[in-house]
Design goal:
Blueprint (H helix, E strand, L loop, with lengths): L17 H8 L7 H13 L3 H21 L4 E5 L9 H8 L4 E6 L2 H10 L6 E5 L5 H5 L2 H6 L7 E5 L11 H10 L6 E7 L7 H6 L12 H6 L4 E3 L5 E2 L18 E8 L2
Parallel strand pairs: 1-2, 1-4, 2-3, 4-5
Antiparallel strand pairs: 5-8, 6-8, 7-8
Helix pairs in contact: 1-2, 3-4
Bound molecules: S-adenosylmethionine (SAM).
């Protein structure tokens, strides 16, 4: 046990981990040899992966600004990932200083790194919880301290749902979270797909990782937005969601859908 009575965190560095593979692909330093090998294998079979992860981050950043411009002052970001500058709370709080951000991830390494970053005003927090148990997310006391579920919330599920297997009922998970949010809340979601290229080799690399890769077609990704109205331009590949400059060459091959929806009354 540690000093605070919790179990010491066991980190399995023998298997590649989604957060660390992603960190490696983004040029980060918080990864191990197994993660770098998996990232290189991915890039060998799906070379656009380098621009894909950056395009996903670009989508995330534009979506943060969009929800803040729309008046939302609370963000629940599930599947936070290792800190990557600029982080969600930095973008949001630069736009409006009073934005509150609750980060959630099931990876203790992500929590440890995020803890080190958080502001002292206590308006941003990171919680260790698992999306597969969505009630444990919305009922977590620290999430409840940051987020007032009577006021509109922007729920971010960016590049996470493809780590949830069909048998774990991702639609049910999203519906449980949706039902905890008041009308006028936002859902910001991106999801990997093989609609634009055959991706079985890339998918297979995750067979040896701590989470599987579950690519889904457009119609399945759209279903996550049940109860939400999509804002323009709807569900598109992430570089084409309200781009602020010309999307990079190769964007048409990027296997990430992204969209933003507003919860209906
Ligand atoms: C690819 S990263 C995405 C990071 C960030 N959302 C972004 O798009 O830049 C996916 C994150 O989801 C987390 N994750 C995967 N499965 C999860 C689960 N069942 N519950 C909570 N977090 C999970 C991983 O630990 C990782 O940090």
């Amino acid at each position: 046990m540690t000093q605070d009575g919790t179990r010491p965190v066991e980190i399995d560095t023998s298997k590649p981990h989604p957060a660390r593979i992603y960190d490696y692909l983004l040029g980060g330093k918080d990864n191990y040899e197994v993660d770098r090998q998996a990232g290189d294998q991915l890039a060998a079979v799906a070379p656009e992966v380098w621009i894909s992860v950056r395009a996903n981050r670009g989508f995330l950043q534009r979506a943060v600004r969009h929800v803040i411009d729309s008046g939302v002052r609370q963000i629940l970001d599930v599947g936070t990932g290792l800190p990557t500058s600029p982080n969600v709370h930095e973008i949001a709080q630069e736009a409006e200083a009073d934005v509150r951000v609750a980060y959630v991830d099931n990876d203790p390494i992500v929590k440890a790194h995020a803890d080190a970053l958080l502001n002292r005003a206590g308006t941003t927090s990171i919680v260790l919880a698992d999306l597969r148990d969505p009630k444990s997310v919305v009922e977590h006391p620290e999430v409840r301290r940051i987020i007032d579920f009577d006021q509109p919330v922007a729920l971010f599920l960016v590049a996470i749902l493809h780590f949830i297997r069909d048998a774990e009922e991702p639609e049910r998970i999203v519906a449980t979270l949706r039902d905890a949010l008041p009308a006028g809340s936002f859902l910001v979601l991106s999801h990997a797909t093989d609609d634009f290229a055959e991706r079985s080799a890339a998918q297979a690399i995750y067979n040896n990782a701590t989470a599987s890769m579950n690519l889904r077609p457009r119609a399945r990704v759209e279903r996550f937005f049940e109860g939400f109205e999509l804002v323009e331009p709807g569900l598109v590949q992430v570089p084409f969601w309200r781009p602020e400059s010309t999307p990079p060459e190769g964007s048409a091959q990027i296997g990430f859908y992204g969209a933003v929806g507003v919860k209906k009354a």
